[in-house]
Amino acid sequence: MLNFIKTFRADEDGAVTVDWVVLTAAIVGLGIAVLASVRSGANTMADGVQTELNKAVPEIDFNREG
User: Fold this and answer.
1) Greatest CA span in the chain, whole angstroms?
2) CA distance 56 to 8
3) Are 63 and 55 in contact (CB under 8 A)?
């Protein structure tokens, strides 16, 4: 029984897994933060491009489907 406890205490496989889970969660959190901060600027820029395209070529309807 004592050998089992010593082996269990020295085993670090679970600690490595926890490190990877924390690292992955941090990367996902950073990705979400970047997307949230860039979203409004990208939408504003896309609206500006659409407005300029509508001015340049008014006969093309960019909002139609198909």
Assistant:
1) 83
2) 72
3) no
